[in-house]
Amino acid sequence: MDPRWTIVIDGHSHDALDAADATADVSYGDGSVTVGDFSTETLTFDGGARLGRIALGCGHSNQGLFVGAAGLLGLGRGRLSFPSQSARHLRRRFSYCLVDRLSKKRSSTSSSSIVFGDSAVPSTAAYTPLVVNPKADTFYYVEMTGISVGGARVSGVDAAELRMDPATGEGGVIVDSGTSVTRLPARTYAAVRDAFRAGAVGLRVARGGYSLFDTCYDLSGRAEVKVPTVVMHFAGGADVSLPAENYLIPVTSSGLFCFAFAATNGGLSIIGNIQQQGFRVVFDGAGARLGFLPNGC
């Protein structure tokens, strides 16, 4: 989620990192809002490691999707994020792996994890350079060069349409843990969807779609099905081959599965957390790169 901070001291706006005993009014891209105190604290971790003067907020009035959560850890590229504030010690390096919360194959002991520091950056991940957007420093931008379905590049995927315009800051592709479904420009999405439909022969189509999904199948009574492969290609030669459960997902308990991509109404494309499941997603700020390591949980 994209935070928009307003820090107020004595009725006046201030630089957030210089604030003490301030009020924080924070809104996010999904409409969630929190209002509370803004201050600095010393954080202590398992093993005794301590980080001092970490700016954080304590929300007293919370509305939106995070209501009921114990807290929210900011991992963006902005000055207030935890990686930025701890950069002197942890070098803006972290990685996480999100388990598939819907998979029947997941064991009861498996859980998602996050690692900070140099140990968070495996050498075996497939890396692509991070792209800087001077107009939006919060997000992790990457350059997507194409998508393959069923072993063939989708001809309707135009790399130029997926590229961020540095002059305006518009467009581009970001990797975001707070968005569920990968969103693509309408023409790109239509090309990928049509290629998947063409390869998903033999599956019983469910007419009408479901929620934001327009490509769904009735797989009730089927223990196993064959579907086209989906691979995302990035600058630098990083190819990310998605497991089938990362793009054909159950949406009802009665056997309805949908293709878990959607079109975006704006120019920004987002690689969501459903497509990230099972990968160790590596954010190497020191090396200005982002990586994907399959089976990383």
Automatic annotation (TrEMBL):
It comes from the Eukaryota. GO terms for biological process: proteolysis. Residues 1-293 form the Peptidase A1 domain. One of its GO terms (molecular function) is aspartic-type endopeptidase activity. The keyword Iron does not apply. The gene is ASPG1. This is Protein ASPARTIC PROTEASE IN GUARD CELL 1. InterPro entries: Aspartic_peptidase_A1 (IPR001461), Aspartic_peptidase_AS (IPR001969), PEPTIDASE_A1 (IPR033121), Peptidase_aspartic_dom_sf (IPR021109), TAXi_C (IPR032799), TAXi_N (IPR032861). Keywords: Hydrolase, Protease, Signal. Belongs to the peptidase A1 family.
